[in-house]
Amino acid sequence: MATRASAASVTGAAEVQSGELRYVARQPILDLHGEARGYELLFWNGREPITSTKSDLATRTMLDNTVVFGVEELARGLPAFVNCTAESLAENWVEVLPPRMTVLELPSSMEHTPELLAVCRKLKASGFRLALTDYTGTAESRPLADLADYIKVDMFSVNAEERGKLLRQLVGSPACLVAQNVETQQQYGQACKEGFDLFQGYYFCRPEPLKSHKIPGNRLVHLEILEDLQNDPVDLQRLSQLVMCDASLTYRLLRLVNSPVCAMRQEVTSIQMALMLVGDTAFRRIAMLAIASDFNTDQPAEILRMAFERGRFCELAAPLCGLAPSEQYLIGMVSLFPAMLRILMEDLVRLLPLREAARDALLGKDIPDGRLLHWIVCQEHGNWAECDAIVRTSGMSHEQVMRCHAMAVEWAEAALRTNV
Fold first, then answer.
1. Who contacts 332 (Cβ-Cβ below 8 Å, separation ≥6)?
2. Distance of alpha carbon 271 from alpha carbon 288, whole angstroms
3. Under a CB-based contact definition with an 8 Å cutoff, are residues 27 and 183 in contact?
4. For the chain, which residues make up each domain, given as ranges?
5. Torsion of CA 331, 335, 337, 338, to 10 degrees
């Protein structure tokens, strides 16, 4: 079951003529080390999320579109968690999905009939895994809990005392325990102490700022580079010297220039050569990629993936609403720098030579320059009605905005592979 207001990274979408589908999204499920171990797939039809396990039509629509988009692409080859109804199981609808890559999610409130249990055993035998969501430990749900590969407990609706009882019931269970709706670092810390294995929520983009935290010297150099990148044209000699002050950044930058992200036909062996060959605009983009990669060294890779998606999406969609692509790329990328550096956005923007409108956009003010950033943040939170409102007021079409985002996701994946 989808988490309440947790992070969703949209991987693709289509606006079907019948209006059955608007957006396709994914929510990461992370382990104790911040690594993604699967994605829950979500769909929206323009009226309400297609996640209701009470609606067989909604589930069928969801399954159909999971096939259309491709489970492997949607979930990056990791397990894809897909909401199901009793009918979708009994009527074999779920068999259109690849068993080894799919986790079938069933709500604990579902009537656990002997027929349902038999179907679940058959599906498990064919390679599917099962997840029991919103688990509350009722006697009726125990037979299915015994079959489940994952058991999800909602941190929002189940208090600490009740969670303790549930976890004691599950001692010895082979199921992987997933904490849902983990929205803060405090909740994440509590879930870790309680013994959960996996975590689903927006907590990983909200690391607590460090008190009296000073940005390390090499990262101050990176911020100085960002300042120089705002000059038009850039000072080639000065920028090359700044980049070469940091060996890690130099290495990352050269890897990116020589990767499919940049699509260069010629091998690049120096920073100055890279600047001359790729040009100012492309160099700004890949330099910010390299800086973001270095900033995120100690944080979950999902933060970096989201930063890449935000930056590229804002850049691609900027011409659709009369905004400057290079500045929008910067706004999208920098929006997650506070999470990487564990400082407040208010403190970060004071260190950057941004236009007032760009600073206001990063601070979340309701201005045109922040519209694209606001759209993608709403996507990540599953606030799709607000996404629609932004599209309407910006003069963009759903088809245009989702094409931009699909391209951004593909580009971000390539960039992340390059930085591994």
1. 307, 310, 311, 312, 313, 314, 315, 372, 373, 376
2. 14
3. no
4. 9-204, 217-419
5. 140
d(CA 336, CA 263): 26
Q: Is 329 helix (H, G, I), strand (E, B) or coil?
A: helix
Supply the DSSP string of 347-365, one letter for each residue.
HHHTTS---HHHHHHHTT-
Amino acid at 313: F
How many Cβ atoms from other residues are within 10 Å of residue 54's Cβ? 10
Whole-number Cα distances in Å, 145 to 110, 132, 150, 179: 12, 7, 9, 15
Residue with tokens 């930085």: 419
- Give the angle subtended at the CA of 104 by the CAs of 144 and 160, to the nearest 5°: 60
Q: Which two tokens stand for residue 172?
A: 């010895």
CA distances (Å), origin 155, targets 28, 144, 218, 303, 353: 16, 21, 39, 22, 41
Give the Cα separation of 413 and 36 in Å (integer): 14
Amino acid at 177: L
| Structure-block tokens of residue 275 | 């600047």
Return per-residue pLDDT of the chain as tens, 420 residues.
444 433 344 344 444 334 444 567 788 999 999 999 999 987 765 555 544 444 555 566 666 666 656 777 778 889 999 888 888 888 888 888 889 999 999 988 888 888 999 999 999 999 999 999 999 988 888 889 999 999 999 998 999 999 999 999 999 899 999 999 999 999 999 999 999 999 999 888 887 776 655 565 567 778 778 877 777 777 877 887 787 777 767 777 777 777 777 766 667 777 777 777 777 777 777 788 888 888 888 888 899 999 999 999 999 999 999 999 988 998 999 999 999 888 889 988 888 878 899 999 999 999 999 999 999 998 888 788 898 899 989 888 888 998 898 899 888 888 887 665
Q: Name which CATH class applies to 9-204.
A: alpha beta
Q: What is the DSSP letter of 263?
A: T
Report how far apart the first and last C-alpha atoms of the chain are (Å, whole number): 31
Question: Are 194 and 163 contacting, i.e. CB atoms less than 8 angstroms apart?
Answer: yes
List of E strands, 54-95: 80-83
